[in-house]
Design a protein that fits this description.
By secondary structure, this protein is of the alpha/beta class. It is built from six helices and six strands; from the N terminus they run βαββαβαββααα.
Length: 181
């Protein structure tokens, strides 16, 4: 397959796992190996997904002051890469930047889609905003799972805030891939 996907601020790389499994070339741009602020964009990019850190934008941040400037530096770097590819490639097949529903809306405006991961079959709730140019993943469920299911036995929820909930869940990633091949 000759399709190249960039996964910006990729962390575990979970969001692009379905692309890798389908034979796409996936380039994860994340620290410590690759920094979005200095990344040189390759040619022939098919699509981009970005998950800039939510630390400064999250409603969960309850200690210390917020440093929006620091958070926006990473968001701006992701958007620079997307713009570079849009200009170079004429049009990407898709691009999407995600972040939990919170303060990033004040800077990027209304998202193209605001969703809950349980809509796609993942069994926890994390209201999430998606900005970009993409087809919306097909929603599977209309009613949320029982509260108990939202807190235990889930694909990436270990009962702790932070890293476990930062992983893009598998049912959503599959639905996104199917809508945006």
């Amino acid at each position: 397959m000759d399709k190249r996907i960039l996964n910006l601020c990729s962390g575990t790389g979970a969001w692009t796992r379905p692309y890798e499994e389908a034979g796409y070339e996936v380039i994860c741009v994340t620290l410590p190996d690759r920094d979005v602020r200095t990344y040189e964009v390759p040619e022939d990019v098919h699509g981009i997904v970005a998950s800039p850190p939510c630390t400064e934008f999250s409603l969960a941040k309850s200690t210390g002051s917020r440093d929006f400037r620091e958070g926006l530096e990473i968001v701006d770097a992701c958007l620079r890469i997307i713009r570079t590819c849009q200009v170079r490639e004429t049009r990407l097949a898709f691009w999407c930047l995600e972040n939990p529903r919170a303060f990033l809306r004040q800077f990027l405006g209304k998202p193209a889609l605001s969703c809950h991961y349980w809509w796609y079959g993942d069994c926890f709730d994390k209201p999430t905003d998606l900005w970009g140019y993409f087809e919306a993943p097909k929603r599977v469920y209309r009613d949320p799972p029982m509260l108990l299911q939202m807190m235990t036995g889930c694909s990436n929820w270990d009962g702790k805030a932070g890293e476990g909930r930062a992983v893009t869940p598998p049912c959503f990633t599959r639905a996104f891939f199917e809508a945006n091949p």
